């Protein structure tokens, strides 16, 4: 994908901030569209899915998290990259945003340089994960193209945050990752989330995997790995 082919949807009800976002990403020569409401954004996405959504949480009317929830529940839009842009800076806000399925979380006021770097990083990481073949360890399989998870022949439901964790571990079978590494690689948090967040998602993932939960192993003193042995 070239820069000219990259379509970015800015969902922001403050025109000045929308213009600042465009200014921040101007060097990449991306194409921008704007929407001021969840309804307007959803209508645009249905007609022309963008490559990246920059989404304000505190929109007038419906919350930006409402749009994020609709995207993550839609099979065809499940993997659409979304970065939350928000003035909400509390740790619990960050945790809520990432648990809802955001690929990254940028607080206002933001550095134009930082936004550009993080936008490109999200696009690169999402792109790397979408074009791979189905992933499997033992009876556990994940297909990135259809966003489905199976244990043997049985499909299982996995929440958005746990899906991303599972996909990352399946891409690196047998490799041990610390909690800090998982926060950085899965949630792109870089120290902004408590490491106990990983333990919560591991617990939820094990519960979802049912009889395959033994594949997700705790390596005492180090972290976690996914292995059939």
TrEMBL record:
It comes from Massilia solisilvae. This is Response regulator. SUPFAM superfamilies: C-terminal effector domain of the bipartite response regulators, CheY-like. Residues 7-123 form the Response regulatory domain. Keywords: DNA-binding, Phosphoprotein, Two-component regulatory system. Signal peptide: none annotated. The modification 4-aspartylphosphate is found at residue 56. InterPro entries: CheY-like_superfamily, OmpR/PhoB-type_DNA-bd, Sig_transdc_resp-reg_C-effctor, Sig_transdc_resp-reg_receiver, WalR-like, WH-like_DNA-bd_sf. Pfam families: Response_reg, Trans_reg_C. Residues 132-228 bind DNA. Residues 132-228 form the OmpR/PhoB-type domain.
């Amino acid at each position: 994908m070239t820069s000219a082919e990259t379509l970015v949807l800015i969902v922001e009800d403050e025109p000045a901030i929308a213009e600042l976002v465009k200014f921040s990403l101007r060097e990449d020569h991306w194409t921008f569209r704007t929407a001021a409401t969840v309804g307007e954004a959803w209508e645009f996405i249905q007609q022309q899915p963008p490559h990246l959504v920059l989404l304000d949480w505190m929109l007038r009317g419906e919350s930006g998290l409402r749009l994020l929830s609709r995207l993550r529940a839609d099979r065809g839009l499940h993997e659409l990259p979304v970065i939350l842009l928000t003035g909400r800076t509390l740790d619990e806000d960050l945790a809520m945003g990432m648990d809802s399925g955001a690929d990254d979380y940028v607080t206002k006021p933001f550095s134009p340089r930082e936004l550009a770097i993080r936008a490109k990083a999200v696009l690169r990481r999402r792109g790397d994960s979408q074009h791979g073949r189905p992933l499997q360890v033992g009876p556990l399989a994940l297909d990135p193209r259809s966003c489905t998870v199976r244990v043997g022949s049985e499909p299982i439901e996995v929440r958005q945050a746990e899906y991303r964790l599972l996909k990352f571990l399946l891409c690196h079978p047998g490799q041990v990752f610390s909690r800090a590494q998982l926060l950085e690689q899965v949630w792109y948090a870089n120290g902004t989330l408590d490491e106990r967040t990983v333990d919560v998602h591991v617990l939820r993932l094990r519960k979802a995997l049912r009889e395959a939960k033994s594949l997700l192993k705790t390596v005492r003193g180090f972290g976690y790995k996914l292995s059939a042995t």
